[in-house]
Design goal:
single chain; 123 residues; seven-stranded mixed sheet; 11 strands
Length: 123
């Protein structure tokens, strides 16, 4: 059974840092690209970042570029999102998602999602 389980969310002050983890089970992550996607209250999903199979290529939304770092440890079957210089606008439920295919215009199609981990940035 394929599962993605996110952890590491919490309440942090503006300017602070958090590291999210996404532990995969039921399959090995080696062959898959992954994304982090977030959803703020009352808003639609927002793609945050993606990573290739080996972790050598990464992509970021402009809103997080230079502040967030996506990484993976294939030996541990785990994905990460290091988030620095957090802003109130980063408050959202953060999901990791397995990319099934990459469509036209580098659009991602996902086949599995985790349950999400809440990140709240507030003083």
């Amino acid at each position: 059974q394929v599962q993605l389980v996110e952890s590491g969310g919490g309440l942090v002050q503006p300017g602070g840092s958090l590291t999210l983890s996404c532990a995969a089970s039921g399959f090995t992550i080696n062959s898959y690209y992954f994304s982090w996607v977030r959803q703020a209250p009352g808003k639609g999903p927002e793609w945050v970042s993606a990573i290739d199979t080996g972790g050598r290529k990464t992509w970021y939304a402009d809103s997080v570029k230079g502040r967030f770092t996506i990484s993976r440890d294939n030996a541990k079957n785990t994905l990460y999102l290091q988030m620095n210089s957090l802003e109130p606008e980063d408050t959202a439920l953060y999901y990791c998602a397995r990319i099934e295919r990459i469509g036209a215009g580098n659009s991602y199609e996902y086949d599995y999602w985790g349950q999400g981990t809440q990140v709240t940035v507030s003083s």
